[in-house]
Amino acid sequence: MVEVTYVPRVKTETATIHSPISKCGDNWWREVRVRAPYKGVDKAFRTLPSLGDPSQIEKFDAGFIDEISVDLERIRDFVVKNSAPLNDRQRKNIDKMLKRAVQYISDARTIQRNWKRGFAGTRIGKIPPWPLGGQPRGGINANIEEGYVRDSERWKKLVRAALRNARCAEEVAKKATIREHNKSSGPRVYGETESRWAKKMAQLEAKHASEESEVKKKAKKKDNSILLVGAAAALGIAAMGKK
């Protein structure tokens, strides 16, 4: 009789991990200045914020995927409010990349949650809690360790792909709005000097940054509310109603 070895793995929805074509989104961890000239006019620009640090992936930062979820909501909110300059192809690509990112973060969260709390199966028995990047809280064997290593690597791939897709979607959306600004400005904006135009663009960028910051605060507040509800349920307190 052939002995079958079962290696524990967390089941996820994603079968194949896709990243954007070319280098779009590669610099998700940097502040990136985006430009989109129109017929020689190259005055408008936007500076995209860093979406995190590569060390947060390597160290399995427990709260990083929550931060990414907030950024995804911020980016989607920007796309919804500034969809006019986008053509059909851009809209479809942005939608595809944001959906990918959301799914990848969901799968990464599933892997992180299962190893943190431990899990069991009829064939593999009980697997003790072993948080990603941490130490096992019980006895393990080679099979458990193999599954843990594979899931850890998959978590990293999912998070990296989510970040690349999120940043690429943001780049496409903001390039379209920047191009529209350059298109409408012409050689000069109604006779404005270069210094006045620079000042106007700085004010516009500050306005967008303020709007995005507000979205991020609301999303964070929403996440905190969800955590409070979960804590209350765990203590047997009546669950808070959804707003």
Can you walk me through this structure?
25% of the residues are buried. Helices cover 57% and strands 6% of the residues. Mean pLDDT is 82; it is low at 188-195 and 226-243. It has one domain (32-234). The strands form 2 sheets. Strands 1-2 form a two-stranded antiparallel sheet. Strands 3-4 form a two-stranded antiparallel sheet. The longest helix is centred in the last third of the chain and has 44 residues, at 142-185. By secondary structure, it is mainly alpha-helical. The chain starts with 31 loop residues before the first strand and ends in a 9-residue tail after the last helix. It is elongated. It has 5 helices and 4 strands, in the order E-E-H-H-H-E-E-H-H.
Supply the key terms:
243 residues, mainly alpha, two-stranded antiparallel sheet, 5 helices, elongated, disordered C terminus
Topology of this protein?
Elements: E1 32-35, E2 45-48, H1 54-58, H2 64-81, H3 88-117, E3 119-121, E4 125-127, H4 142-185, H5 194-234
Antiparallel strand pairs: 1-2, 3-4
Helix pairs in contact: 2-3, 2-4, 2-5, 3-4
Can you list the strand order of the major beta sheet? 1-2
Number of separate strands: 4
Average pLDDT: 82
Low-confidence stretches: 188-195, 226-243
* Element order: H for helix, E for strand: EEHHHEEHH
Please compute the radius of gyration using only Cα atoms. Answer: 22 Å
How much of the sequence lies in strands comes to 5-15%
Question: With helices defined by DSSP (H or I, 4 residues minimum), what is the helix count?
Answer: 5
Bulk shape = elongated
Largest sheet: 2 strands, antiparallel
| Helix vs. strand class | mainly alpha
How helical, in percent, are the residues? Answer: 55-70%
Please give the domain count: 1
Task: Give the terminus-to-terminus CA distance.
Answer: 58 Å
